[in-house]
């Protein structure tokens, strides 16, 4: 990417800061001088953890997304322009709206108080939700009675807003998800909503409210459509396995790799683990050359 843009990076939602640390160290080892690395972080606690881990590295923290960015955006979150943006597992934690089909009409699933307990309840879907479900059905076919899922309106809005931030460069969105026809498959009867509490996965977001990580898979068709409608180009879409192999992961192992490293690579590439479920979507502006990460296995036509 830095063959096409200045060596500037902004990352959204950097978590513990490990990705930023490893990326900066890897670029330094390759002799790439990063002009600027910024992290957009809204959590003071996470920002403190990131500062501790990244101590000694030239990183700055922002409280709001940049405008007129010239570089690469990493989406796993400026006064002047920056070109690479990263969003690594960011879209999956954005709020979603739940719906369920009752006859031929969608109903919105929300939360109500029953006695002293929280419980799911249904109400008539508003115009926006009904229109979004109708658009899904036009593409994937009629959804059966009782079918439930979710729609990521917030994620779509975030992708549209990226067009305001990105003057020239690339936004990389790395997350688990599917194109729309797979996302709303008839056999996926109650969507993809999942919760995590202390490394325990479960499907009840009303258990221990406020303490769970609540996630939903990403509809990458919706993300690509939102970016394109806002004036960005869709530059590539592929699996994590193809992306990493295209970028030379196997070449870097060399003859002296350990069993531990082989197992780590297997987890990243295996279809049974992260290799197939995780996808990489690249959108951008002002980039005319093909990107290495999508040289083989590009699935843009499936979006």
Provide an overview of this structure:
The protein is an alpha/beta fold. It has a domain of 54 residues. The protein is built from ten helices and 16 strands. Strands 1, 2, 3, 4, 5, 10, 14, 15 and 16 form a nine-stranded mixed sheet that branches. The longest helix is centred in the middle third of the chain and has 14 residues. The two termini are 23 Å apart. About 2% of the residues have low confidence.
Helical residue percent band: 25-40%
Major sheet: 9 strands, mixed
Question: Order of helices and strands, N to C?
Answer: EHEHEEEEEEHEHEHEEEEHEHHHHE
For this structure, the quaternary state is single chain
Question: Approximately how much beta-strand content do the residues carry?
Answer: 25-35%
Radius of gyration: 20 Å
Tally of helical segments? 10
Taking pLDDT < 50 over at least 5 consecutive residues as the criterion, the unreliable ranges are 77-82
Structural class: alpha/beta
Mean pLDDT: 91
The total count of strands amounts to 16
- Separation of termini? 23 Å
Sum up the overall morphology in one term: globular
In short:
The chain has 303 residues and is an alpha/beta fold.
For the structure shown, list the relevant keywords:
303 residues, nine-stranded mixed beta sheet, alpha/beta
């Amino acid at each position: 990417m830095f063959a096409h843009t200045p060596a500037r990076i902004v990352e959204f939602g950097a978590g513990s800061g490990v990705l930023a640390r490893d990326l900066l160290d890897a670029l330094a080892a390759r002799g790439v001088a990063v002009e600027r690395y910024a992290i957009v972080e809204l959590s003071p606690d996470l920002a403190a953890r990131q500062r501790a881990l990244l101590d000694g590295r030239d990183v700055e923290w922002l409280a709001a997304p940049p405008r007129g960015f010239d570089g690469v955006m990493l989406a796993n979150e400026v006064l002047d322009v920056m070109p690479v943006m990263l969003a690594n597992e960011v879209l999956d934690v954005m709020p979603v709206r739940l719906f369920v089909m009752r006859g031929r009409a969608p109903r919105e699933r929300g939360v109500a108080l029953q006695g002293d307990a929280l419980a799911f309840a249904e109400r008539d879907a508003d115009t926006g939700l009904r229109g979004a479900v109708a658009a899904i059905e036009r593409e994937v076919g009629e959804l059966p009675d009782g079918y439930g899922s979710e729609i990521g309106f917030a994620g779509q809005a975030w992708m549209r807003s990226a067009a305001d931030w990105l003057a020239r460069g690339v936004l990389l969105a790395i997350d688990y998800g599917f194109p729309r026809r797979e996302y709303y498959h008839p056999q996926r009867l109650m969507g993809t909503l999942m919760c995590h509490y202390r490394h325990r996965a479960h499907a009840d977001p009303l258990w221990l409210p406020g303490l769970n990580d609540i996630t939903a898979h990403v509809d990458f068709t919706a993300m690509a459509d939102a970016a394109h409608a806002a004036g960005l180009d869709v530059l590539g879409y592929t699996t994590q396995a193809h992306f990493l192999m295209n970028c030379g992961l196997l070449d870097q192992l060399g003859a002296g790799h350990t069993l531990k490293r082989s197992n780590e690579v297997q987890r990243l590439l295996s279809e049974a683990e992260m290799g197939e479920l995780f996808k990489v979507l690249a959108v951008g502006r002002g980039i005319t050359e093909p990107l290495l990460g999508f040289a083989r296995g590009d699935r843009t036509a499936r979006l």
